[in-house]
Every structure is written in C-alpha cells, then in structure tokens.
Amino acid sequence: MLFKQSKSALGPDGSGKSFTALPRLILQRKIFVPAFKVALVVGTVLNVINNGEQLWIHHTLNLWNAALNYVVPFCVSSYSAARHEARSLRGD
After folding, report:
1. DSSP string covering 4-53, please?
2. Could you tell me the pLDDT band of residue 90, with boundaries at 50, 70 and 90?
3. Which residue range forms the structural domain that includes residue 91?
4. Calpha distance 31→33 (Å, rounded)
5. Half-sphere exposure (CA, 13 Å, Cβ side) for 19?
6. Structure pTM?
7. Core vs surface per residue 34-69: b (16+ CB within 10 A) or e
8. Is residue 7 part of a domain?
9. 8: in domain
C-alpha cells in the first residue's frame, strides 16, 4: 500500500470524504517523498535554531523536541499536499 498511486483513495462516492482518504493520499509516493524532503530541510533548520547552543557546546538534546522539529513539517507538508490532491481529484 505504501507509495501506491491510485484514485481509490477517494471515498466510495468519489468525493474524497472517506475517513481514510487523506492517509491513503499521504502514503502515495508523489506526496510522501517531497514531504519527507521538506521535513529534512525544515527540521534541520529548526533544530539548529532551537538547539544550536546545545549542539555547539556538546550538551545533550531533548530527543523528543528534536524529533518534533522533523515530524511537524512533515505533517504540515503532507497534509496540505494530500488536501490539494483530494480537491483536484474531485474536480474542485
């Protein structure tokens, strides 16, 4: 299922309003890979901004906060791309 490209992510009526429509769209390669790349770049910049001092003086980082700096940009990017894809498949 991961990276499968199909229009089956739409609901049974083709509306894209199925509960699983967005998660299925997010797992499509054309959405997942660019969102992952955005998360790598933005997450790295956020980690340098938020944790730069700890990095330079070799202190330990809060791994939860560092991970969130990557997860949040991925979620935002993939969600917005999936919403756009769902709307374009519906013809909006």
Report:
1. ---GGGS-TTSSS-STTHHHHHHTSHHHHHHHHHHHHHHHHHHHHHHHHH
2. confident
3. 28-55+62-92
4. 6
5. 0
6. 0.74
7. ebeebbeebbeebbeebbeeeeeeeeeeeeeebebb
8. no
9. no
**How many structural domains compose the chain?**
1
Rounded to whole angstroms, how far apart are CA atoms 33 and 30? 6
pLDDT in tens, 29-58: 999 999 999 999 999 999 999 998 888 898
Give domain status of residue 66, yes or no. Answer: yes
Instruction: Output the CA–CA distances (angstroms, integers) from residue 85 to 4, 29, 30, 78, 92, in the order listed.
Output: 14, 12, 10, 10, 10
Q: How far apart are CA 92 and CA 86, in angstroms?
A: 9
Q: Is residue 4 part of a domain?
A: no
Fill in the amino acid letter for 62.
N
Q: Which of 79, 9, 4 is nearest to 39 (CA)?
A: 79
